[in-house]
Write a structure and sequence with these properties.
By secondary structure, the protein is an alpha/beta fold. The chain has helices at residues 76-102, 114-137, 139-143, 161-169, 265-273, and strands at residues 5-8, 18-20, 44-47, 51-53, 60-62, 67-69, 146-148, 174-179, 190-193, 244-247, 251-253, 258-259, 295-299, 305-306, 322-324. The strands form 5 sheets. A 6-stranded mixed β-sheet has the order 9-8-7-10-13-15. Strands 12-11-14 form a 3-stranded mixed β-sheet. Strand 7 (146-148), helix 4 (161-169) and strand 8 form a beta-alpha-beta unit. The protein is globular.
Length: 330
């Protein structure tokens, strides 16, 4: 019986330095290296044979009865992960403070005037429209049949309402939007396909989008004030359904690293769509391009893009395929 091990090597590990040694008949002689994610600090390996690592790691042997791991895994790995979490928490505080001061909400402070709030809203709308103007001009967007998108919070992040109007009523895209549900502690998220009847009012008539009405205006809202598809809509996205996923974030950098809100909703969803960590037998579709879907396009405001800083990343953090700001594409 083969024993499968998933091991994590620190940054000095080089996959080319892994070599097979005298496999017994009870074990496969094949090393299967699965580079499932572009991560910082190492690679995940799926191994089916005895092997040894020739640089700075001690012998690791896999037998038919047990896995003996003698890699010297010191407390430095845990300490490094703790450092990354602390760096992210500090960076989140800095970015949130910057967003609150640049784009104050009506309830943010008694000293904030109506004129300040209106000016911030206009700036927010302008930057948002500039970002999505770039999105609509992307060949990848134009070729995509289905788009994973998000419904924005009322304040404090890029606004998506105008973009959704175009996607649905002009470009005719199949739209998938997030549903977190009521179990916020689970930190899990699905993207739900918007059916034709989602675009209709209760009396069966289509909303008049020319007056600003959109299909999700009557949906229930979660604790962040974001509308979510009703429980009756069960068209949940599966791997391969979404061609392009527009990903929000608290911040992005020049390396296309993303800083989320800290709950891991999008990283878990992307891993699910790209079937990261799935056994071969459990993969829904083995077509070559399926595990590359969806294309990841991060979007953010100017105040959320870090020109001179690098966002620390962990092994579970996905790097975007591209990032769009109001003034650039990275």
């Amino acid at each position: 019986m083969h024993h499968k091990a998933i091991l994590y090597f620190s940054s000095f590990c080089n996959p080319s330095s892994l070599q097979t040694i005298g496999c017994s008949s009870a074990l496969s002689t094949k090393i299967k290296i699965n580079h499932t994610k572009n991560i910082r600090g190492g690679v995940h390996l799926h191994l089916f044979c005895p092997y040894y690592y020739t640089q700075r790691c001690r012998l690791v042997a896999v037998t038919s009865t047990r896995l003996c791991t003698n890699i010297n895994m010191s407390d430095s790995t845990k300490s490094n992960n703790d450092d990354i979490r602390q760096q992210k928490q500090l960076l989140r505080k800095q970015i949130r403070s910057r967003i609150r001061s640049t784009f104050p909400s009506p309830s943010s402070s008694s000293s904030t005037s109506d004129e300040d709030v209106m000016a911030a809203k206009m700036k927010l709308t302008s930057q948002s429209n500039q970002v999505f103007h770039q999105l609509f001009n992307l060949p990848q967007y134009q070729a995509a049949s289905s788009i994973g998108f998000f419904l924005s919070m009322p304040f404090g992040e890029i606004q998506t309402r105008d973009a959704i109007q175009r996607m649905v009523h002009v470009d005719g895209k199949i739209l998938y939007v997030p549903r977190v549900g009521l179990d916020f502690e689970k930190c899990d998220m699905d993207l739900i396909r918007c059916d034709d009847n989602d675009y209709d009012d209760d009396d069966g008539s289509s909303p008049n989008y020319l007056d600003g009405t959109l299909f999700y205006d009557k949906w229930p809202k979660n604790k962040w004030g974001i509308p979510e598809p009703p429980p009756g809509n069960t068209n949940i996205a599966t791997p391969g359904d979404i061609d392009l996923l527009v990903v929000p974030g608290l911040a992005f950098d020049c390396d296309r690293h993303r800083l989320g809100q800290g709950k891991g909703y999008y990283d878990r969803f992307i891993a699910k769509m790209r079937q990261v960590g799935a056994d071969d037998a459990a993969i829904v579709d083995t077509a070559p391009d399926t595990r590359k879907k969806p294309l990841l396009v991060g979007v953010c405001l100017e105040e959320q893009f870090l020109e001179d800083q690098t966002i620390p990343v962990s092994d579970h953090d996905f790097i975007m395929d591209m990032v769009l700001t109001p003034s650039k594409k990275v």
